[in-house]
Amino acid sequence: MVFLSLVSGFIFLTYGAHLLIKGASKLAYSFGVSHLVVGLTVVAFGTSLPELAVSVKAAWVGQSDIALGNVVGSNILNVLFILGVSSLILPLIVAKQLIKFDVPVMIGLSLLVYVLGIDGSISRIEGLLLSTSLIIYCWILLKLGNTGNTIIKGESPLLKSALFVVIGLFMLVTGAKLLVSSSVSIAQSFGVSELVIGLTLVAFGTSLPEVVTSIIASIKGERDIAVGNIIGSNIFNILAVLGISSAVREVSVSKSALYFDIPIMIGVALACFPIFFSGVISRIYGCSLLFYYFAYTTYLLLNAKQHHFLDEFTSIMLYLVIPLTVLGLTLSLLHTLRTTHLQKRS
Questions:
Q1: Which domains does the chain have, with CATH numbers?
Q2: Is the pTM of this model over 0.90?
Q3: Which of 145, 197, 199, 327 satisfies CB 3.0 to 4.6 Å to 69 for a cystine?
């Protein structure tokens, strides 16, 4: 049964992503908005439905660690793993709107999660404020992404496109659910904590729709949808998933999440700016992002088991790998700024 669930889950995810991208591309054309905006909204919000379902249910039954860990872990995974894999398949061109608006919004919201969690919880009122802010964000996106094109009848049937999106989303959610349920049961049987399960297995499982959608979008050359899906999902996770979960029931913020996992999420969001500023997410950046995802997951597993190698691994990351990465990103940003300045002068 576990094997059948695994195979069925992957089939549902793959074909569902194919239908979703096909429908979303046609919807963008029909409504006269850019593919980037559709990626940031319809695709991103749709693929984040599993996170919403898992976190709201976890908050309702008082499992705050899973509710919060799912959001934080998904946001880390979206950038490090999904963006990394997608850019390995095909270097991703970054739209200027992402640099000027969406990435700064993601960074600001990541910092806001830390500020809201300093007192040890995210209250219902704070949750309501987060969730209602999503309406403002969507309104601004539609203003920015309106191409001014009108619907051309016969070339992009609206009903058929919408049907592709709905069926695709249903298959993605169903596929993710089949994979998550068995993975969590196995992890619990090994005595892994709820926070680690939320940050790894649940976060990865509920992010499978984003994983498959962005990878297939990269293969199909739909780069705006691939990148927009990732950034839009991160914003949706904070505003809608965490917001609605907190509005349902106050979400407690553990010291472990406040002093380690949320700062990692902030750091990952900040790293997007110098990477995106170059205009292209190259395969080298993709490899770097994947390396950090596996390093982060390794730390979580070593820490969960209190492995003897934990201290050495932490020292190597803190005093060698991370400083070198910060230096590399800083030099890359300065090089891009200098190149841009010279181009403007000429």
A1: 37-147+194-341 (1.20.1420.30)
A2: no
A3: 199
